[in-house]
Amino acid sequence: MLLQNVALAVAGLCGLSAAASDGPQAVEKIEFTNVGFAGTYTPVVSIKNADSDDCSCSVGSKQWFYGSNAPISDAVSVHFRGPLKLNQFAFYNSSSFNLDNADNSSDWSRVAYFDASSQTAENAVFLTKAGKDSPVLGKALSFADSDGVSSSSSSQLLAEDTLITSDQEYVIYSNASCPKSGKKNSCGVYRSGIPAYHGYGGATKMFLFDFEMPTETQSNSSSFDYFDMPAIWLLNDQISRTSQYPTDANCSCWASGCGEFDIFEVMNGTEKNHLYSTFHTFQGIEDLGTGIQADGYINRDTSGSMKGGVIFDSNGNTVVFVSNSTSFDQTITPDSLNNIISRISDDESLSTKLATISASASSTTSKASDANSLFEKGTGALWFYAFTFVTSIAHTVLF
Ligand SMILES: *[C@@H]1O[C@H](CO)[C@@H](O)[C@H](O)[C@H]1NC(C)=O
Ligand SMILES: *[C@@H]1O[C@H](CO)[C@@H](O)[C@H](O)[C@H]1NC(C)=O
Ligand SMILES: *[C@@H]1O[C@H](CO)[C@@H](O)[C@H](O)[C@H]1NC(C)=O
Ligand SMILES: *[C@@H]1O[C@H](CO)[C@@H](O)[C@H](O)[C@H]1NC(C)=O
Ligand SMILES: *[C@@H]1O[C@H](CO)[C@@H](O)[C@H](O)[C@H]1NC(C)=O
Ligand SMILES: *[C@@H]1O[C@H](CO)[C@@H](O)[C@H](O)[C@H]1NC(C)=O
Ligand SMILES: *[C@@H]1O[C@H](CO)[C@@H](O)[C@H](O)[C@H]1NC(C)=O
């Protein structure tokens, strides 16, 4: 099978990444290049008996994605885990943005925004897992109350200075409602009874945050899954609408690789003040759970606020950064963004090249259903033909 071939190619090049690495280092900018590949995932097409022990799900035929940043080019939801305070959040898009080539870039437009201090939200809805519980699917999404984590019957804004604690989570979706659940509808099949919204789409996109990650004040115990391990991350927007933490992998498209990108994530208690960035996609790896992690981290400031975010440019460059110069203006020019990024010195930067997967999706009957995906039409009509694997996960620390 395809993935085994990719794994072999990666195994052959392990020496390269090990040789270049002298252990993770603290930086202010984490870059991934060559992001995006042609691949498939299987969407959930049915959820039966959602609320009982007999719950079962099935997945459909392979759905294709390709191009810059794929599959993160699909719509994504934005996830937060405590200990965390969110002061501002913004989502931007641009018709073209090339890092290091401002001449060939157009402005970024803010298309979603949340500001805790003025209690303003544009095109942003707070949801949380406080709905119906299921032994297989876990808790369903509900509207989040102003504390971020209780269930509400209608959309509410997160109150100013809301601190969510270890294990607590909320998620931001756009305010565009999904049509009814269905294989052929734009949000696919989702769990019944949830407030269902679209995520934030587009290949060229940017998410900015002003946030705090103070040290947990409760004491550690085995009742925590993620004690003092805050995170901000992106998931394919279908994942939470079906199930984020299912006991049956067919209840989410995650396991088939529909996409996750961790922007700022504490990985374990030993490194509780290190924020790592990770792609959980099949771009040259077999172990999706481990994913593709940069060999360095951004320091977690436990006493002040942090500003920064992630840029996915039009050429497959992903940059996670922190900078107190980050602004949340309605329009951000390519020059002003490039200034912030280029002001970060080389010894505060890290770059990781993702594997090149040359692949072609060949079909006479498939048609593009949207900019980023092809649907399989009938068995055998669409096939994945991988002919070269130039696989290098090269960790290059820039000096
Ligand atoms: C940016 O988002 C807005 C609102 O969703 C949309 O109308 C516009 O087409 C998007 N622009 C690009 C370049 O994707
Ligand atoms: C400018 O951007 C467009 C769209 O991303 C691309 O097709 C073109 O090759 C770029 N030109 C240069 C000079 O980089
Ligand atoms: C979504 O948010 C935008 C920006 O705040 C607003 O103009 C629009 O009316 C909202 N749409 C819905 C359905 O609430
Ligand atoms: C998940 O779906 C696959 C493919 O449809 C099937 O082979 C597998 O048995 C399913 N797993 C479970 C736990 O139902
Ligand atoms: C903690 O996470 C980092 C980053 O993934 C990893 O390098 C390190 O080995 C982990 N430490 C432990 C004790 O698991
Ligand atoms: C919390 O306890 C768990 C074991 O229950 C341990 O693995 C983890 O490192 C601890 N976290 C911290 C921050 O000490
Ligand atoms: C950024 O600002 C915060 C407080 O607003 C401060 O704690 C932090 O040290 C600043 N970071 C840098 C790199 O100057």
From TrEMBL:
The keyword Signal applies. Residues 106-339 form the Cell wall protein YJL171C/Tos1 C-terminal domain. Its EC number is 3.2.1.39. Keywords: Cell wall biogenesis/degradation, Glycosidase, Hydrolase, Signal. The keyword Signal applies. GO terms for molecular function: glucan endo-1,3-beta-D-glucosidase activity. Pfam families: YJL171C_Tos1_C (PF10287), YJL171C_Tos1_N (PF10290). It is an enzyme of class 3 (hydrolase). GO terms for biological process: cell wall organization. It catalyses: Hydrolysis of (1->3)-beta-D-glucosidic linkages in (1->3)-beta-D-glucans. Residues 29-94 form the Cell wall protein YJL171C/Tos1 N-terminal domain. InterPro entries: YJL171C/Tos1_C, YJL171C/Tos1_N. Residues 1-19 form the signal peptide. GO terms for cellular component: fungal-type cell wall. Belongs to the PGA52 family. This is glucan endo-1,3-beta-D-glucosidase. It comes from Lachancea dasiensis.
